Amino acid sequence: MLAVMSEKTIALVTGANKGIGYEIAAALGALGWSVGVGARDERRRTDAVAKLRAAGADAFGVSLDVTDDESVAAAARLIEERAGRLDVLVNNAGVAGGWPEKPTTVDLKTVRRLVETNVIGVIRVTNAMLRLLRRSAHPRIVNQSSHVGSLALQTTPGVDLGGISGAYAPTKTYLNAITIQYAKELSGTNILINNACPGYVATDLNGFSGTQTPEEGAAIAIRLAALPDDGPTGQMFDDNGVVPW
Q: In 3-state terms, what secondary structure has residue 233?
C-alpha cells in the first residue's frame, strides 16, 4: 500500500462530507490525488466517500472531530499507516453562530464553541499532522478563512461584510493571526501555509443564503493546495489575489 500511495499526492480535507469541503476533496481527487475525507458524521462521511469514488476519485474516509484530541490523534495514525506522510492539509471544518450578532448580547457559549472549532481545532489538527507533513517533498497547509476576518476590510468605509458579528468574524481574525505565527515558525522549511477566502457561498453555514456555489467557493483553496515550491506563504487570498489582513 505504501509503495502505491507514495506515487500520489496525499491530502486531508477536514469537514469534507458536504459543501465547500466536499468540492475541495472532489477537485483534488480529480487531479489524481488520494484524498482523505475528514468528517465527524459517519453516515455523511461514508456517503461522500462513495460518491467521490463513483466519480473516479481515490477517496478514503477519516473519522475526524477537530474538537477532540483523541479523534485527531487517531486520524493522524490512520494517515500514517495508510500513506506514511501527508502532502496537503486543508483545514476546512468550521461552524458559525448567529448573524448579525452583537458582541454586547452574544452568548458566551457560542463564542467558546466557535473558537474551539474554528481556531483551536485548526491548531489541534495542524500540530497533529505536522510530523507527517514534514515527510512530504511539497507540503502545503490551507486554512479556510473569510473576508469577514480581515480587520482591514472590516474598518474600510463602504465595505459591506454583512453586519456585526460578535463571534464568527472574530474567530476568523484569530485564525488569520495564528496562520501568520505558523508561517513565521515554519519559515526556512518547505511548508507553505496560507488562508483562503471562499467568498459568500451558499452552504448550510449561512442557511444557503450565499451568492456563490460551493464549487466556486472551493476554487481558491484548490489553487493554494497545489502551489509550486516557490509559491507564497503566510498570506490570505481570494479568487482575485491577496486579501489584506
A: coil
Listing DSSP states for 79-104 in one string gives: HHHHHSS-SEEEE-------SSB-TT
DSSP letter at 29 equals H
100 upstream amide cis, omega within 30 of 0: yes
Give the C-alpha separation, 145 to 221, whole Å.
10
Return the active site residues: 168
CA 85 to chain centroid, in Å, comes to 18
- pTM here is 0.94
- Phi and psi for 201 in degrees, rounded to 5? -100, 140
Per-run averaged pLDDT (10 residues), the chain, 245 residues: 61 96 97 97 97 98 98 98 97 89 95 98 98 98 97 95 93 98 97 92 57 86 97 97 97
The DSSP code for 163 is: S
Angle at which helices 168-186 and 108-115 cross, to 10° = 30
Residue 4 exposed, middle or buried by CB count within 10 Å (0-12, 13-18, 19+): exposed
Helix, strand, or coil (residue 199):
coil
- Rounded CA-CA distance 189/183 in Å is 10
- CA dihedral over 114, 116, 119, 124, signed as positive or negative: negative
Which segments of the chain are extended strands (E)? 10-14, 34-39, 58-63, 88-91, 140-144, 192-196, 236-238, 241-242
49 exposure class (CB count in 10 Å sphere: 0-12, 13-18, 19+): buried
The C-alpha atoms of residue 215 and residue 197 are separated, in whole angstroms, by 13
Cell of 181: 505565527
